[in-house]
Design brief:
It is a single chain. The protein is 36% helix and 20% strand. The longest helix has 22 residues. It has a single domain, classed as Glutaredoxin (3-Layer(aba) Sandwich), CATH 3.40.30. 38% of the residues are buried. It has 190 residues and is of the alpha/beta class.
Length: 190
């Protein structure tokens, strides 16, 4: 009986840190209330009528100023990101009167490969540019994008963060996209 009690106690001690880790919120990107800073990117695709040529280097954050905007930083240009891009493309197009803007940053380790991926990935986007940041590994250092997080979505208005979504691998689900769009609607468009 003593042996079983010892084993159960050791098992409980081993599992306890995992329970606490699961409850911890994943953090990535600027916190709500923080100012969004300038950072340069290279436009690779999308938003063909925004006055910026593919291959141009610029600061979209600066171009958009204090307008309501959604900045996405992603390490994986997969079908989930394509779904988010499609939804953002629609909502940006429908809310041009409110000057809603968005852009998707493809981040990772190989700049040339990232640019190729971004060119292919963003060719269907009408309203949302797809870019590679000059600081391509995780985006601008002062934004605090967590290199272990797959997708970070920063929602800003008036130059300040109003919402932030940090999503691990496979975290960009339909439910997560719904929450992002709820924040866009409730915090940017109302």
């Amino acid at each position: 009986m003593k042996y079983v009690t010892c084993v159960l106690a050791l098992l409980a001690l081993a599992v306890a840190p995992l329970a606490f880790a699961a409850d911890e919120e994943v953090k990535s990107g600027l916190a709500v209330g923080k100012a969004i800073g300038a950072f340069d990117v290279v436009k690779c695709a999308g938003a063909l009528e925004d006055g910026v040529k593919v291959g141009d280097q610029l600061c979209y954050r600066c171009k958009y100023g204090g307008r309501p905007m959604v900045m996405v930083f992603s390490r994986n240009a997969d079908k989930s990101l394509a779904q988010l891009m499609g939804k953002l493309d629609d909502v940006v197009g429908k809310n041009s009167d409110k000057q809603l803007k968005a852009f998707i940053n493809i981040v990772g380790e190989d700049r040339e490969k990232l640019e190729q991926v971004a060119k292919t990935f963003g060719k269907e986007s009408k309203n949302v540019p797809v870019v590679v940041p000059v600081e391509f590994e995780s985006g601008p250092k002062d934004y605090g994008v967590n290199p272990k997080v797959e997708t970070t979505v920063i929602i800003a208005k008036g130059g300040k963060v109003v919402a932030n979504h940090a999503l691990d691998k496979d975290g960009l689900t339909e439910k997560a996209i719904g929450k992002i769009l709820e924040d866009v609607d409730g915090k940017l468009l109302k």
